[in-house]
Write a structure and sequence with these properties.
heterodimer; A: 106 residues; alpha+beta; HU Protein, Chain A; 2 domains; two-stranded antiparallel ribbon; 3 helices; 40% helix; B: 94 residues; three-stranded antiparallel β-sheet; two-stranded antiparallel sheet; 5 strands; IHF_beta (chain B); DNA binding (chain B); structural constituent of chromatin (chain B); Hist_DNA-bd (chain B); transcription (chain B)
């Protein structure tokens, strides 16, 4: 997909400037703070529920056997905590509505 | 943390802003993310993660109760991949 087709913090800051009336500095800071607050909650082991969009949850994964794909050497994948995202029914419905029948035609 | 808790935390960070502005900012950000993703536009937030759509081809499934074959149409499902900073921060060993 083309680079111009990607939503980034810069575009979100522009939207806050246009629609909320923040100045450029405030808009940029607010976007940064939004993602930082979500990271802080997850870092503290607290899941994040954003109704209408989706939930971020934490999963503790046990150690499992792995392999270096290049050398074939066996190396354990250590136990770790990971973030998972589950889209809300509303977001899934929006995707379904907009993407219906679009495969190979995009 | 819920959406309203997120709004409260953002409002507390910016005491000079009207509380309503934090609420509106969260709404604008989430609406833009949902709109982009549903239109097939990828979202990339450095240090946080990326969102895109994964294609699921049509398949023949089974109704687990009746055992009857059912056609499951193709679809796109939202997918999130955590960024490097996010992965490292949630996995801090203490």
């Amino acid at each position: 997909m083309k680079e111009t087709m990607t939503l980034t913090k810069a575009e979100l800051a522009d939207l806050l400037f246009e629609r909320v009336g923040f100045n450029k500095r405030e808009a940029k800071d607010m976007v940064e703070s939004f993602y930082e607050e979500v990271r802080v909650a997850l870092q503290n082991g607290d899941g994040v529920k954003l109704s209408g969009f989706g939930n971020f949850q934490l999963r503790d994964k046990p150690q499992r056997p792995g392999r270096n794909p290049k050398t074939g050497e066996e190396i354990p994948i250590t136990a770790r905590r990971v973030v998972t995202f589950h889209a809300s029914q509303k977001l899934k419905a929006m995707v379904e509505k907009n993407q219906h029948g679009k495969h190979n035609s995009q | 943390m819920t959406k309203s808790e997120l709004i409260a935390r953002l409002a507390a960070r910016y005491p000079q802003l009207v509380a309503k502005d934090a609420e509106l900012a969260v709404k604008v950000i989430l609406d833009a993310m949902a709109k982009s993703l549903s239109q097939g536009q990828r979202i990339e937030i450095r240090g946080f993660g990326s969102f895109d759509l994964n294609y699921r081809p049509p398949r023949v499934g089974r109704n687990p109760k009746s055992g009857e074959k059912v056609r499951v149409p193709e679809k796109y499902v939202p997918h999130f991949k955590a960024g490097k900073e996010m992965r490292e921060r949630v996995d801090q060993k203490d």
